[in-house]
Amino acid sequence: MSKLIKRIAFAVLALVIFTFIGYRAILALFPFPEEKISQIKYSKIIYDRQGNILRAFTGQNDSWIMPVNLQSINHNFSKATLSIEDKRFFKHPGVDPLAVMRAATSNLKAGKIISGASTISMQVIRLLAPKQRTFFNKVIEAVHAFYLERKYSKAEILNLYFELAPYGGNIYGVKAASLRFFQKLPYDLSLSESALLAGLPQS
Predict the structure, then answer these.
(1) What is the number of helices (H) and of strands (E) in the chain?
(2) Strands 171-172 and 64-65
(3) Closest-CA residue to 46 (of 59, 56, 36)
(4) Could you give the CA distance from residue 145 to residue 188 in angstroms, rounded to a whole number?
(5) By the 8 A CB rule, do 99 and 119 touch?
(6) Rounded Cα–Cα distance for residues 36 and 128 (Å)
């Protein structure tokens, strides 16, 4: 083995060890917000015998936020959301290296921040525990996103996003947004309604 290959192997090993130590250190100093998931305060909903909503009341911080599951969401809406927010959601481990490189290249060329690289997992972390947008907080967010993906399935993470994503004002989650804007449940959204609603969190 040549000296160059040995040096490259040593550098890779050192990087892996440094990354692992940093990962564990950040989790120790800034614990994953597990309690935030179990403490989500949903809007209180009153149903009739047929399961129709009779009345609903705002939840935490006077916000509309309703529980939902993936089976109750129109497939077109799920596809539109992934296309807009995180095309490689099912391929990355919480942080998308390709998106990071693409955003870094775009920002360097523009001389300012014009593109981000937040995955849906990173957005879930930000929604659970909002922090000031700094580089170090972004690193913490990335570490927590990695941990989130180790602890929860992709379906569970996507479900959390569909419950917590902001859709304007005090409306959070696709169920509250669908009822507010279209007076229908997420499963009944049309293709155009799905596309419109999926674009709201970014705007």
Answers:
(1) 9, 4
(2) parallel
(3) 56
(4) 31
(5) yes
(6) 6
Tell me whether strands 44-47 and 53-57 are parallel, antiparallel or unpaired. Answer: antiparallel
Q: 2-38 pLDDT, tens per residue?
A: 666 656 665 555 666 767 788 888 889 999 999 999 8
- Per-residue model confidence (pLDDT) at position 92: 93
pTM of the model: 0.84
Any residues with CB less than 8 A from the CB of 10 and at least 6 apart, and which? none
The two tokens of residue 107 are 């920002």
Q: Which of 44, 74, 64 is nearest to 197 (CA)?
A: 74
- 17's tokens: 């060890």
Q: How many CA atoms lie within 13 A of 84 on its CB side?
A: 16
pLDDT of the residue at 80: 94
